[in-house]
Amino acid sequence: MIDTAQATRHFVERFGEPPQWVVRAPGRVNLIGEHTDYNDGFVMPLAIDRAVWIALRRRPDRRVVVHSIDFRDEGEFALDELRPSEKRWLEYIKGVAWSLADDGLPLSGWEGIVAGDVPAGAGLSSSAALEVAAARAFASVAAIGWDAKAMAVRCQRAENRWVGMNCGIMDQMISACGRAGHAVLIDCRSLELSPAPLPEDVRVAVLDTGTRRGLVDSQYNARRADCEAACATLGVKALRDATLELLGDHRRELSETVYRRARHVISENERTARAAEAMRRGDFGALGPMLRESHRSLRDDYEVSSPALNAIVDAAVEHPACLGARMTGAGFGGCAVALVRSEAMDDFARRTAVRYREQTGFDAVVHVCRATDGAAVEQALNDAPA
Ligand code: GLA
To answer: Could you give the CA distance from residue 128 to residue 30 in angstroms, rounded to a whole number?
Structure first.
């Protein structure tokens, strides 16, 4: 696990003195509301205690020099000549610089280290965490006031337009706006946030299947196109505005595939709204069936699950202490999420991993997650403004 002290140590090893700032931006896990964000719908993620950290100091020139601890690599670029390069990890940072500048915000040069403990490619948003951490770094060094929502939107634009991944707003928003001890219902149209407390007696477990899929981007774009096709036929701006009844009325005008894609999104939005209500009532028992239903819908209608994800969800829900489980994130590999009664967590983790190995031959990693606050300046030295 990385913390302020560790990030500081990495900086001192590289630059010989303490950093001016240490910033952190968390990864996330989504409880429910999958593939709804780019349909203007609802999502219910939490920021997790796995994060990207940047320790940095100002530079007198307009260059950014970054040492990646995880990639054992160094990259740099000039703020006045932003051009794409081959170093993918650096493009997330450069893209954020481009997006901030595009909004007319001032930029200053800096140098630092970046280190993280969000597993990459697992569906826990390591790239959104890197973008939001980079935004925090740029904001600190140029004394830009931190408007978390506006920064999340700028980071999403960096990912859409600079990196070229057409994601929705969920990951950047929760990394910027997470709240300790809470999941956050996000209305992805109005960007209104409603935190819902997570009780002490239930834990959020992230179940990493150990599998990764490279085709996510093209499949993701194909799903977005299916949703747009459904909107055109239904005559709505976004699937957020459609009901199952309206979908039923138009069934014969839609291909079977587009019909099922839309049925997932519309029903998932309804489930997410119901889940938020159950959480407000403190009725966690009611969430279990909704998570399972969400998984079935993603598996059968949206077709973004995988054999490994199905196997780990089946293994998890077999355990009596598991309230519910489902795949989480874009899909095709990566992680599932489970809600588990706290007192049986260790037994749950052990038995789920054993069962999953029996079924697939793969080793699962179970992370028990705490919900944390969104991106923050964890330390500012001397006269450095936060
Ligand atoms: C990825 C995207 C998000 C969201 C999820 C699916 O994580 O980055 O915007 O669409 O997939 O819910």
So the answer is: 13
